[in-house]
């Protein structure tokens, strides 16, 4: 009775492999969390390389040395970014402060009862701090010299090194395996390039349409910050366009009920144009993610990496989705 019968006995076998597996996985996750800034830097460098590589390959095909082609393309890209920021940042900061100053009073005009719960004058007193904080955020981005320089270096190195993946991956894997991995990386590169230029074009088109529309309906005073907000929030699918419409609609109702409804109609029209014409034409198959998965990716990105995590959530998800789909496709073929 004291002894278990053979039928009731069971044995638990714990191998060294199992112990190593359950020890290494949490350790790897922890290490990845520690070096997340490095991962972000590598990812941005990879996106830059994917976006600029077609231009480099084109110049190289015209008998220009690859090194010279890379330096030329990279310098032009950096100068374009600097010129863009120097042109749009000053008016954005000024008009954004005016917008923030006006918005509380606009809300009070629409909902007079709100003054019973919130002191509007207290809200407007924060405007100088908000403007200062905008400067601080911009400064912190560019003052983090190590991150910026490292990211630019990664992108430059990826571009300069011709046949980079063949040289690195071919060293550690057999030819058949390395060819499969390189094929997947090349597909990821193409998708990243399509996403980058498509997103940049989409942001520009939506920003311009919003800017022109706001001028046409008589809201030109706030056109620049609202248009820039609409363009920038295009990088956050589904949620961004809705958020960008809220301040414009509130300000529209301050002008008049008619202007408020017209502002609402403007954003609906721009959104419909984006969904039915602009996105299919520009983005093609670059993204094509399920809205629920997109939302999950954005939430996870925000929780893990803050604002930078939100901005990189979609490209990182595209990388993972491309890798998984290609692996499944190759396994089905074999």
SS-derived structural category: mainly alpha
Mean pLDDT across the residues is 75
Number of helices: 12
- Taking the alpha carbons of the first and last residues, their distance comes to 55 Å
Low-confidence parts lasting 5 or more residues at pLDDT below 50? 126-131
Total number of beta strands: 0
Radius of gyration: 26 Å
- Name the overall outline: globular
**Proportion of beta-strand residues:** under 5%
The quaternary state of the protein chains shown equals single chain
What string, H for helix and E for strand, traces the elements in order? HHHHHHHHHHHH
Give a short account of the largest sheet.
none
Helix content: over 70%
Describe the structure.
With 334 residues, the chain is mostly helical. The chain is built from 12 helices and no strands. About 2% of the residues have low confidence.
